[in-house]
Write a structure and sequence with these properties.
The protein is an alpha/beta fold. Helices cover about 45% and strands about 15% of the residues. Bound molecules: nicotinamide-adenine-dinucleotide.
Length: about 260
């Protein structure tokens, strides 16, 4: 069988980077896309050094032309089979009163609009191939949140609905659409959020977020990536239209 091509956004860092590595280890050719083009190229080099196959691209997932180009670049590598949306952002001062229109629009464009923009170009290729998989990255914040997280939580809730909707619309084409809702993962995004809360990961020992999980610690990016990568495989053929929590039991705890 020809090697499947998969696109991973947000591939320069954290969960996206780990997902790109996991998909390459599964045998995919990976197009590692990120706003940080140098970081994406480094991840592609890392994959190549491990014997895999990858290309890194500078892509702003909020930009339509960039998204079209990224899908075309992936198609030039071979048969596209999976599109894994991981790129996302959070912002400071994230309350309805504080957030400016510009900050709100940027966050929604990156966290939600990106799924429309990239998928729009990828779907015809997946359809022509007889099917494929699209994965979105939501968050536990779609279901339960914390103060000052308005736009981020709204964007992650929108992804749950969008994933369900796309699964229905694309099922006739053999395209499965699934989401993952990570809990707290040790990535630069989480560390930055802790700093915004006036602490550091070191000071917190990640206890602030980790102690709320059933397993008593935050997840490593590789653990979250393993779920994302598995969802793209035929083993997950009956997981469709839903967003599954990979949250180490964070949502399970009431007190
Ligand atoms: N870390 C967590 O605890 C956690 C929990 C739940 C959900 N998530 C979600 O997982 C995803 C990855 O988060 P992470 O923690 O690995 O973050 P991260 O900050 O380590 O990585 C995010 C990556 O996305 C890239 N990116 C941001 N804006 C982009 C854009 N416009 N175009 C292309 N790339 C862009 C960044 O350059 C970065 O490389 C995000 O969608 C995030 O909301 C993270």
């Amino acid at each position: 069988m020809a090697q499947r091509v998969s696109i991973v956004t947000g591939a320069a860092s954290g969960i996206g980077r780990a997902t790109a590595l996991a998909l390459a280890a599964q045998g995919d050719q990976v197009l590692a896309a990120d706003l940080d083009g140098d970081g994406a190229a480094r991840v592609a080099e890392e994959i190549a050094a491990a014997g895999g196959s990858a290309a890194g691209r500078a892509v702003d997932v909020a930009d339509s032309d960039d998204c079209a180009r990224a899908v075309a670049d992936a198609a030039a590598l071979g048969q596209l089979g999976a599109l894994v949306h991981v790129a996302g952002m959070a912002v400071a001062d994230d309350t309805v009163e504080q957030l400016s229109d510009a900050a709100l629009e940027r966050l929604l464009a990156v966290n939600v609009g990106s799924v429309f923009r990239l998928s729009r170009h990828a779907i015809p290729l997946l359809r022509a191939a007889g099917g494929g998989v699209i994965v979105t990255t939501s968050s536990v914040h779609a279901y339960a949140s914390m103060p000052a997280n308005a736009a981020y939580a709204a964007s992650k809730g929108a992804l749950v609905a969008l994933t369900r909707q796309m699964a229905l619309d694309l099922a006739p084409d053999g395209i499965r659409v699934v989401g993952v809702a990570p809990g707290s993962v040790d990535t630069p995004m989480t560390r930055a959020a802790l700093e915004r809360m006036g602490t550091s990961a070191e000071e917190a020992g990640f206890d602030a977020s980790g102690s709320a999980t059933a397993i008593g610690r935050v997840a490593r990016p590789q653990e979250t990536a393993a779920v994302l990568a598995w969802l793209t495989t035929p083993a997950a053929s009956v997981v469709n239209g839903t967003t599954i929590a990979a949250d180490a039991g964070l949502l399970a705890r009431l007190v």
